[in-house]
Amino acid sequence: MSKRPSGMELAKQPGTIILPGERMANIGDSADAGQAVIRIGSGVTQKSSELLASKAGYMRYEASRNKLWVESNQKRYVPALEDPIIGIVQDRFGEEYRLDINGSDTATLSMLAFQGATKKNRPNLGAGALVYCRVVRASKNMEAEVSCIEPGSTKSWSGGETLYGELQGGTVVQVSLGMARKLLREDRVLKMVGNVPFQSAVGVNGRIWIEAGNCEHTMLLSLALQKADVMRADEWQEFVKQLWSQSKK
């Protein structure tokens, strides 16, 4: 995470292709007044007052969170601060869970890193449990750390109304990292999947959780999302129509 003045200048338009070493933005003098915060995501490195690309891909910028990153077709997820991800509990060590996050390494989750959790009142997760969480520490030299606490929220994990926490029921669909980020940017894609109510959670690590109330609808939604990753938009829309029409027979 890096400080920047409100007048940060992007060197390229978001969505354009960028190569390693190319300048993405100038963040000026971090000592200036009127500082804001820019979140540096995957594929971005800082050199003095400049943000440079460290890998090839599409330049992305999310104004609402002041987040800058490079989107590529990599298969393995690289943790970045504030990324929402879906982890799978592998084991428990003392007061921490170790999660598979679809990366080259695992991540740790404190047993108290849940909204309103205490030593006497906290989730008890078993191996294989799905957890929707956010990255709070990301380093090349250390294991990533995640949390299920949403800043500013007063809801408790025990009420089942928190944004982050254990995902119960449903199923997980594995998609490309690019598709996962697209689903976060354009929720209309999820809305087009079907005409039944469902719950979903999108992790930028390529995992999508879907729960539609019954197994048939959940499986149909999962299949539609998998196909969205490999079909053209027009082909996919036609496929979704046929999928739901056949399910009603």
UniProtKB/TrEMBL annotation:
Gene Ontology CC terms: cytoplasmic exosome (RNase complex); nuclear exosome (RNase complex); nucleolus
Main localization (coarse): cytoplasm
Location of the Exosome complex exonuclease Rrp40 N-terminal domain: 38-76
Localization in the cell: Cytoplasm; Nucleus, Nucleolus
A Pfam match: RRP40_S1
Biological-process GO terms, alphabetical: CUT catabolic process; exonucleolytic trimming to generate mature 3'-end of 5.8S rRNA from tricistronic rRNA transcript (SSU-rRNA, 5.8S rRNA, LSU-rRNA); nuclear polyadenylation-dependent rRNA catabolic process; poly(A)-dependent snoRNA 3'-end processing; TRAMP-dependent tRNA surveillance pathway; U4 snRNA 3'-end processing
Keyword Repeat: no
Keyword terms: Cytoplasm, Exosome, Nucleus, RNA-binding, rRNA processing
Annotated GO MF terms: RNA binding
Every K Homology domain range: 170-213
Similarity remark: Belongs to the RRP40 family.
UniProt name for this protein: Ribosomal RNA-processing protein 40
Organism: Gracilariopsis chorda
Native organism taxonomy: Eukaryota, Rhodophyta, Florideophyceae, Rhodymeniophycidae, Gracilariales
